[in-house]
User: What shape does this take?
Amino acid sequence: MNVAVAKTGKGRAVSDLFTSAEGRLPGSPAVTAVRREAFETYERLGLPHRRLEEWKYTDLRALVGEVLPLAASPDAATLKRAADAVKVHAIDGARKLVLVDGVFAADLSDVKALVAEAGFKTLRETLDKDAGLLKTASIDAMIALNAAMATDGVVLSIADGAKLSAPIQIIHIATAASASAFTRSQVAVGKGARATIVETFVAAGAKAYQVNDAVLVSVGDDSDVAHIRLMDDAPDAVNVTSQFVTIGANVKFNFFNMTTGAAVSRLQGFIALAGEGSELSANGVNLLKKTEHGDTTLVVDHAVPNCVSREIFRAVVDDRGHSVFQGRIIVRPDAQKTDGKMMTRALLLSDEAEADNKPELEIFADDVSCGHGATAGALDDSLLFYLKARGLPEKQAQALLIQAFVGEAIEQIADDGLREHVIGVAERWLERRQ
Amino acid sequence: MHHLNKLDTKMALLEVKDLKVRVEEREILHGLTLTVNEGEIHAIMGPNGSGKSTLSHVIAGKPGYEVTDGQILFKGEDLLEMEPNERAAKGVFLAFQYPVEIPGVATMNFLRTALNAQRKARGEDEYSTPDFLKKVREVSKSLNIPQDMLKRGVNVGFSGGEKKRNEVLQMALFEPSLCILDEMDSGLDIDALRIAADGVNALRSPKRSMVVITHYQRLLNYIVPDVVHVMSKGRVVKSGGKELALELEASGYAQFEDAA
Ligand SMILES: Nc1ncnc2c1ncn2[C@@H]1O[C@H](COP(=O)(O)OP(=O)(O)OP(=O)(O)O)[C@@H](O)[C@H]1O
Ligand SMILES: [Mg+2]
Assistant: This one.
C-alpha cells in the first residue's frame, strides 16, 4: 500500500491498535470481516475534530490525542478490586451485570436472578454466530471504532408483557490504567413490558483509562422503560458513549444521564420516536470541575405524529471546566402534532468555567408545538447571601443552591429509589468540592 | 449624647461607631452611631431612602457595601471582619424587608441545614431529627404557619405576610442575641401583625436585643421599644423614648430634614 501510515500523537501507528488486539476480539470469521471494515472506516475518519459539525465543541484530536491500546483481560487481582467497587456502586435490590475492563464478569453478576425474568447473553456469545450487533447505521468514527474493537457487552431481551421486579444495573468498571475498554450492549424490550436499566461507569483504582461504549435499545409498543446512566469515571479518564434508542407506539421512555467525572466525556444519544402516542422524557446533568470537559449530545427524532418529547438539561461547571449540550429535535414531515420542548441551563461557578449550548430544531411538519430555551449564569448572589446570613458557610450555601438547580432535571426520574441514588451521587460530587 | 442615662450601666451588645458606607461610589451612611445594650429594644424610624435597610445589611454582612470609616462591634468583637455566616453563628439575625424566594430548596431542609450549621460553628451538637421537628412544629404552630408551607421551597409562593412570618419562625428557631427586624410590619394584615408581634415578644429576654425598623407607630404598640431613633440622610438625628414615635406619627419627618 502506498498510503502513509497514520500515526497517533505518540508515534504508534493507528492500525497497531487493531492488529495488536485482533487475536483477542471475539467473533466468527464473518464478524472479523465486519470489524475490519469498521476499523478501516475509523482509520479513514480518524478521531473526531472540531471541523465536524457534530463534534465542533468536543475536539477529540485536541482533547484526547490518541486511542489507548486494549486493556488486558481481567485477572483474579483486578476482579477482586472490581468486586469492592461493585459493593460501593451497586443499587440496592438491582440485578447487577458487571463488565470489568470491557469483559463480562459472571462471578460479580446476578445472572441467575436475572434470567428468571429476562433473556440474557453476553456480546461475546452472540458474536459466535452473528455480526448483527456490530452494525449500526452511523458514520461516526467513534461508533465505527467501537464496532471494530468491542470485546464484550450484555445482550438483554425483555419479553412481551414482562414486568421486571427489579432494576437491571450494568456496571462498567475500569481497573487497567492507560488502556481502553470497548463495550457494546443491547436492550430489546418487547411489547407491554416494564423495565428499568441503570448503567454506571466507575473506576476501581484505574487512572487515565478510556471507555468507548455503545448501547442499542429498542422498546416495543405500550412499554414503560426507564434508562438511567451515571458516568462517574475517574478524573483523568475518557468516556465516549453512544446510545441508539428506537421507541414504538404508546411508550413511556424516561432517560437520564449524569456526568460526574472524566477528563473528557461525551454521551451521544440518538433517540427515534417511531410509533405514535409515545412520551419521551430525556434529561441530564453535567457536574464538572478542574479542566473536565463533558459533552451531552442528544438527537431526538420525531418520525411519526402525536409524540411528546421533553428534555431538561442542567450543567454545573466549576474551575476551568467545559460543558457542552447539543440538543437537536428533528420533526419529520409526517410527524404532525409533535410536541417537543427542550430547556437547558448552565450554572457557572467560576469566571473561567465555560458552557456551550446548542439547541436546534429541524422541523419539516407544519402542525407542531416545539421550542427550546437556554440560559447560562452564575449563582444568584442575593440567594447566596440569604443562606449565609442564616449561618451556612459559602460552599454549603452553594451546595444547597446547586442541588436545587440540578434537582430540576433529577426530579424527572420517576422511581423514588433511583432518584435518591442519583441525588446521592450528586451529593458526593458536591462534598468533594467542599 | 443620645444615650438614656439609666441604660448606660448595661452591657453594650451592638456598637455602631461613626459608620460611613458607600454603595457604588455614593455615600449612603455618613457617620452613623448607635449603641444597643443587652436586652433592649430599639426602634429605628425614618423616611424612605434614609439608609435603614443599608444599615441592617451592613450589620448582616451583605456584599456590595463599602465601609469607608467607622466600626461595628458585636459583643466587643469586630463584626466587619466576619463572614455573614460567622455573624449568624455569633447571634446576629436580620429579618429581611424583602425575603428572597429559593426554589428547589425545601423550607424544612433549609431550616435544619442552617440551624445545624450555626450549632456546628459554635461547637454545639447538631439537633437530632425528632428534636428538630418538634421544635419547628411548636414554633410554627404559635406563628400560625401551616406545616405544608414548610414542605415548599423557601418562601416560594408564600404571600407577603407568610414570608414575614417565615422570618420570625427562623428567628425563633435560631435564638439569636440580636434581632434586626426590617419593616416586619409591611405587607402584614392586622391579625398577621398581631401574631408576628406576639412571636417577637415571646422572644424578648434580658439577654436578647432587638432593632425594629418601621415606618409605623402601630407596630410599636405591640413591640414596645426602650429607645426610638430617627434616621435621616444616613445618620441618626434624634433618639428618645417610645413617645418619640408618637411625636413622629403626628408631625412627620420634615423637622429632621434640616438637622441631617
Ligand atoms: N445597591 C444599591 N445601589 C445603589 N443605591 C442603593 C443601593 N442600595 C441602596 N441604595 C440607595 O441608598 C439609599 C438608602 O437606601 P435604603 O434601602 O437603605 O433606605 P431605607 O431607609 O431602608 O428606605 P425604605 O424606608 O424605603 O425601606 C437610597 O437612596 C437607595 O437608593
Ligand atoms: Mg428599607
